[in-house]
Amino acid sequence: MLKKFLSLIISFIVLIPYLMVNGNAIEITVSAKSAILVDANTSEVLYAKNEYEKRGIASTTKILTSLIALEYGAPQKEIVASKEAVTVEGTSIGLKTGDKITIKALVYGMLLESGNDAANVTAYGISGNITEFSKLMNSYAKKLGMKDSNFTNPSGLTDKNHYSTAYDMALLTSVAIKNPAFKKICSTESAVIDFGIPEISRSLSNHNRLLRECEGVFGVKTGYTKASGRCLVTACERNGVTLIAVTLNAYDDWNDHKKLYDYGFSLYDNEVLQVDLKSIAIPVICADKKTVSVEIAYQPDFKTNGLYKSEIYIEQFLYPPVKKGDVVGSVVFYDKKERVIDEIPLVSCDTTTSLYIEKEKIPFLQKIKKFIERLSI
Asked: Which residues have CB under 8 Å from 115's CB, separation 6+?
């Protein structure tokens, strides 16, 4: 197999978005004390304000609690609500001592109605008590790289030692929305769950107004306490691009997120990235064509945003036969931070055959047989 080599490097600059003036993006203002807007696929920060400042996060805490619940327990597993678990202040879905409820229903209760009782029952069901579950939360957060966060309870009740940052919450959310069950639940506007003695159906409504008011928004979680202020984490998808917005302690959070998304999506070019391969021709040894041209196997499905670089890797030379569509290299796309976005095969545009017809290969034993036959004549 031929070794591949770096034939050439093509660095290209896409058109600077029309909102860029003299190389500086038009500034936007938000009411939040801390805020961030990131690309969920590339982790690129598009807007930030005090993003590393530690703050209370109220019920957006339930993003982590829900993700742990879905990953550590079977969705249909039933948990029995204890008196300690349901004795909690704040919002509630109405759980009482002895109620049986599934983990899936608890997650609906947390992400839609923001039930503190649902969060507590989840913690007791998975870890036995709040203290042990908080340890699990912190361990999980560290694995995700949430360096400036600490959790002391599953619901987000006020505690000076319970905090996070806009950056860390965006990091958590980028992981959470990759979980299909989590994404489905947090994007649901209303649902019906069953629990109680006797078991009855209860209707839940999502507190996230942006599911109805902002194009493309599909989650994620609201939050409020007097100490933390209004907290909001959302995710939005438009034209194949997913952005995550986080605002902490914002008096106008709904409009903050609308502005962030309008700004963020305006930075993306509507055209997919193009790669110029016209000048590339790979030599073919002893063939009816001296070279073959190449083309990209398929167009990348991500959108442009600012400066990108691509590197093209091709075979140094080829041996015939070469068929149209044969893979002869690849093009690798990088983001601004030199991280690989995608790698797409390069294929031959041409078909070529050998100039020489190989002599028929005769098996060794057959050669001996023919030699003996000639001697006997």
From this structure: 91, 92, 93, 95, 109
Q: Annotated catalytic residue: which of 34, 49, 62, 104?
A: 62
Q: Please state, in angstroms and as integers, the Cα–Cα distance from residue 343 to each residue in 117, 178, 218, 339, following that order.
A: 46, 21, 28, 11
DSSP code of residue 150: B
Is residue 59 among the annotated active site residues? yes
Q: How many domains does the chain have?
A: 2
Give catalytic status of residue 143 as yes or no: no
Query: Based on the domain organization, do 249 and 319 belong to the same domain?
Result: no
Catalytic residue among 34, 59, 310, 348: 59
- Residues in the chain, overall count: 377
pLDDT for 240 equals 85
pTM, two decimals, is 0.72
| Per-residue confidence band for 10, with pLDDT thresholds at 50, 70 and 90 | very low
Tokens matching residue 157? 């009740």
Same domain, 315 and 233: no
Question: Lowest-confidence range among 78-92, 171-185, 228-242, 333-347?
Answer: 333-347
Q: Does 88 lie in the same domain as 8?
A: no
Q: What is the CA radius of gyration of the chain?
A: 29
pLDDT over threshold 90, residue 4: no
Structural domain contains residue 45: yes
Residue 259: half-sphere exposure toward Cβ, Cα within 13 Å: 16
